[in-house]
Amino acid sequence: MSSEIKVAIVGQPNVGKSSIINALSNAKLHVGNFSGVTVEKKEIYLKRDDYDIRMTDLPGIYALNAYTPEEQVAKDFLVDEDYDVMVNVVDANTLSRNLIFTMQLLDMHRKTVLVINMVDEIEKKGGTLDEKSIEKLLGIPVVLTSAKENRGVEEIITQIIKLHNSVLSKNKIYYNEKVEQRIEELAKILRKSPHFKSEDYSRFLAIRLIDRDENIYKMIHDLPIFIEAHNALEKMYKDLESEFDEESTTDILANERAAISYNLQMETLDIKEENESLSEKIDNFLIHPIFGLPIFLFFMWALFQLTFVLGNYPMNLIDSIFIETSSFLADFLPKGIFNSVLTEGVLPAVGAIVMFLPNILVLFLGLNLLEQTGYMSRAAYLMDGFLKKFGLQGKAFVPLVSGFGCTVPAYMAARTLKNPKDRIITMLVLGFMSCGARLPIYVLLVSAFFANQNPGNMLFYIYIGGAFLGLIVAKILRTVLFKGEPEPFVMEMPPYRFPSFKALGMDLWIKTRMFLKKAGTFIAIAAMVIWFLSSYPVNNTLVQNYNAKIEQTVDINKKMNLKNELNAKLLENSYLGDFGKFIQPVFAPLGFDWRLSVAVVAGLSAKEVVVSTLGTLYAMSGATETSKGLVAKMRQNVDFKAAIALIIIIMIYSPCLAAMGTFYTEVPQWAWRIFYTIYPNVVAWLLAYGVYKTLALMGY
Amino acid sequence: MKTISDLKIDEEAIVQKIMAKEPVKGRLLSMGIVKGAKVKVMAHTLARQTWDILSNNTKVALREEEAHSILVKGLHE
Ligand SMILES: Nc1nc2c(ncn2[C@@H]2O[C@H](COP(=O)(O)OP(=O)(O)OP(=O)(O)O)[C@@H](O)[C@H]2O)c(=O)[nH]1
Ligand SMILES: [Mg+2]
After folding, report:
1. ipTM for the complex shown
2. Which residues lie at CB < 5 A from ion ligand 2?
3. CATH superfamily of B2-74
4. CA of B2 vs chain A CAs: smallest distance (Å)
């Protein structure tokens, strides 16, 4: 018989909670060197001896007075859910401030293990930690770990199991006599209610109430004891505040906890203060008042140069592998539907998208470095003043820049914004941050139409231009719809940390696998659908007419032309051709033919589908020139103005279904959902049309 | 009384009182910026709009409004 232990992993942000779980299991939780990496709770199962251990990784939380939506997730879990053991992770580098939160957790009086992580960094500075004294002073087991070096983590499990099998110890945190008196008094009142019979629970609630915790206050609001508790509380607030000469009882408790924590650190941690750490030396450059921003822009520019240049080497190779394979298979496999679906539908489509994998990986590597090194919060610091001009704040930088990777996690990351207005504005403009899946379309179009200019620069302009447009829209939304100042900006800046190559490699590998899986399933199926829709119905009289003509012709070139003409006519008369011509009037003012129109609409399902659809449609319309890559075909079939209009549409219009779904789950109000679904498409069309017309006037 | 936004870069001081309203105040407290804590200004942006403060071995980025709400006194006052 195995027994289950439920464990909650809790601690301030960026202390290494997710890293510890990764070190303990084969989980691949997302890790990054800034606050607010984990924004939803995640469950991980472990098996040790006879125990099934169910660990819940919670978003980092600074204090039980929850502040942001993702912190609320953690708080709700801690207060409402059922778990056997709490593991409180703290960062050895910032022990005393972390312990302030530990005090709040200890108020709950549950089975708790204190994990002091990042001891490697303390040791490197020549410091030592006396965990035995902390154990004695707090009365709970303490484990020293380094998730980075995989040290000490198994001991956490040992302690969890030990605690699980023992009775809860009697130790408590004792506050100042005057405070304790009030806690007891209030707890006594609470215990009159059948919900709060337990000694520990009533004490915890009493402390929370004296700490002015609004959630807990709401909790007792509808109970019969409310009036009595409320009156007692009001008196306590007044008395305590005058006795301690503080503005609020919250401050009294905070000062108490801070004093205990500070003394704990002084007694147990032996470390010299550094003169100037490496982080500060780096910061002298990277957040320099004058050069900081230009350096940041340079990094972004360099990233897009690399994305194009490095990505381009393997691109032609991958492209030709797919072209060779499909022409080989076309001859090798028996003629028939299967042959055609595979070699005209699926392979060109999947090839058209897979060839951009290297570009995407370079982009993701850059974003990953931004997350792992600690530069993310510096960039937020640098951008704060600029973002403020557009009615946003520095913290919004994190979701915005994550949007360059993928819009789905970026919507989730917006949870770290406290103010609901800030959050909705950020989410509404997140689509303007071009995601990694749009990269292939840009690379394709830039390669086709800007080969002579510096293509990396073009990519940079597209991405930065999109971001800029998003900020302008944010400003408009802020002025028109959401008056009021953005939320205050307070953000922790962790020390720089050298990213581990293993973690970077792992992340790229996960991205590659996900991408290939998507190409092999979703994209392939979409391609099949596109192929069938564009191959049927076959107009037999048309085929017969042309075949008769072709037979009569002797000239090889003329024969070829007739064949192409037939293919084009068949495609035009297919279901997809009908659909394309049906929607084309919408896109005709932008110079799109029906194929581009279909590709744009299909792109609403996923942005990869734009390129894969173009791959299929252009492969079919010119069956005799399969040897030519998609880039060349685009150049032949699309005019310059339309290409620019297409880039603008892609930059702005609705993101993929997955992203829209995420927005819908994160934003419950229907008015916002409807607005979000419509406005980007209108803006996209209008802007594309404006630019198309302007270019036409300029004589392009 | 002086506030953090009156300090120069590299200047140190002791926190006296936090004037910010909740919940910003609570957030500052839980980041270790409490009464009696030593703070040091590490950097600020050119327009002095955003500040980089070190306290209790934690670096915190704040806006001018928040920096202005933290009353401090010099180390030897
Ligand atoms: N040197 C060192 N770095 C560590 C250690 N554990 C984690 N880190 C790094 O610390 C940073 C934060 O790690 P995470 O696991 O994302 O922290 P978290 O507590 O889950 O953070 P949130 O989800 O934001 O609350 C990452 O850059 C890790 O690589 C450690 O033991 N030593
Ligand atoms: Mg995490």
Report:
1. 0.95
2. A 18, 37-38
3. Ferrous iron transport protein A (FeoA) (2.30.30.90)
4. 19
